[in-house]
Specification:
With about 425 residues, the protein is mainly beta. Helices cover about 5% and strands about 35% of the residues.
Length: about 425
């Protein structure tokens, strides 16, 4: 798939699919070039400080208001806040990968909510979903009023056609679709599966680097935003909206992806996880996992994220005199982990599979299994490289409550706790 992109994170972009379409000097002239409609898409309140304000001016063949009334449709396996349908357990939880459906299923119908915290109405928290698909969305389009969507493929290749342009998305890449942006998912493989973090809070930004300095982690220039591309199609189309936790459907007589030109800083983007510049210890001790943060959604409590997106990529391990795997840990933050490929170095004993996931909630103890522990405490500490792995974590200040369907699923590993039960007493004092 060959698509065009502009590089940079959060930049003020200007792009047009037809030359001389963008107005010069003002956003909303009395008559827009080529008979287009001017429409502003605001991702923050109008009065947000200038350095945090998110908005984009769209120049469209038809305005977004042109659709028939929305009606409720079945949510299927998509759930939303409040997530605590049952009492939330402090137990460690892990699931095997969900199956690709036998029936024809597109991206919307294949959404399966595994957990979440916070709520959509107050713009706080997150929803965590899995997606499976074996069919393109064809004449359906989608936008989310509840939050932005961080899409993490684990299987299959997607073409995401958005109002602002096209994004080709492969395994080991991520895409972020801002709240309110319309899009359509086309499959470029027979089957697709992956993870979604639905961020109800403030939009994702790059974390501060502090003592790391000017370079490292995810660099702004590696984030790619599509150039303008549009559809001028007439026909019978469906526009699906996720609003306050439920799905709504409206009929359209045209494609909503009819933006001929746009300028602003509120737009979808993609990022190749292999471009992440990992920072790690070259002396001793295992650094906190926060050094692997790609994106963060800040909260009002400075330094405590609404949600962080953290990865554990291919990297060298060289620390001396150190237990190298992730240490045993209890965390005030709640952690959802997924695996894109390879083996996660904290679970060498098996059970954590690509496409699977785990939840370790606030103050729930977790850490390496027995096999990993035994190997790590006795192995020769020579430099080694984890060459072909990619695990990730959605970490949040909110309790991550699993849905009832997830807790009742046959993919829930009832014996997960057993991976720690044969840790022996080694005390010899």
């Amino acid at each position: 798939m060959q698509d065009n992109y502009m590089s940079g994170f959060g930049n003020e972009f200007a792009t047009e699919a037809i030359k001389d379409t963008l107005p010069i000097g003002q956003n909303n002239p009395q008559e827009v070039s080529k008979g287009l409609y001017a429409e502003q898409l605001s991702g923050t309140a109008f009065t947000k400080p200038r350095d945090q304000n998110k908005r984009t001016w769209l120049y469209k063949i038809r305005p977004s208001v042109l659709h028939l009334p929305f009606t409720r449709i079945d949510n299927n396996n998509l759930k939303s806040s409040p997530f605590n349908e049952d009492d939330v357990t402090p137990n460690q939880l892990r699931w095997s990968p969900i199956d690709i459906p036998n029936r024809e299923t597109d991206f919307i119908d294949g959404l399966y909510t595994i957990a979440g915290g916070g709520d959509t109405g107050s713009w706080n928290g997150l929803g965590i979903h899995l997606y499976t698909a074996n069919k393109s969305m064809d004449d359906r389009y989608f936008y989310n009023s509840d939050g932005e969507m961080l899409i993490v493929p684990e299987l299959g290749e997607l073409l995401i056609k958005t109002e602002m342009g096209k994004i080709s998305l492969r395994v080991n890449e991520i895409a972020v679709i801002p709240r309110g942006v319309k899009f359509q998912v086309i499959l470029h493989s027979d089957e697709a599966r992956g993870y979604i973090c639905e961020n109800y809070g403030s939009p994702f930004i790059l974390p501060d680097l502090g003592p790391i300095g000017a370079n490292g982690l995810a660099n702004p220039r590696d984030f790619l935003t599509p150039v303008a591309a549009f559809e001028d199609k007439i026909g019978e189309f469906e526009l699906v909206n996720k609003f306050n936790g439920n799905l709504w459907s409206a009929k359209l007589g045209h494609s909503p992806l009819d933006v001929v030109a746009w300028h602003g800083n509120y737009a979808p983007y993609k990022y190749d996880l292999s471009n992440f510049m990992a920072i790690n210890s070259v002396t001793f001790d295992h650094c906190d996992p926060s050094i692997f943060t790609v994106l963060t959604s800040p909260s009002a409590d400075i330094g405590t994220a609404n949600v962080d997106f953290v990865i554990f990529p291919p990297r060298w391990s060289v620390a001396d005199k150190t237990f190298r795997p992730p240490y045993y840990h209890r965390n005030i933050m709640s952690e959802f982990m997924g695996l894109i490929k390879g083996i996660y170095d904290g679970k060498a004993g098996g059970g954590f599979q690509a496409g699977g996931c785990s939840i370790h909630n606030c103050m729930s103890a977790h850490g390496p299994d027995r096999k990993t522990f035994d190997k790590a405490k006795s192995e020769e500490l020579k430099p080694i490289k984890y060459p072909d792995t990619m695990a990730f974590m959605f970490e949040s200040k909110y309790i991550i409550a699993p849905t009832k369907q997830a807790m009742n699923s046959d993919k829930l590993q009832q014996d997960y706790y057993k991976c720690w039960q044969d840790l022996e007493k080694n005390f010899d004092g």
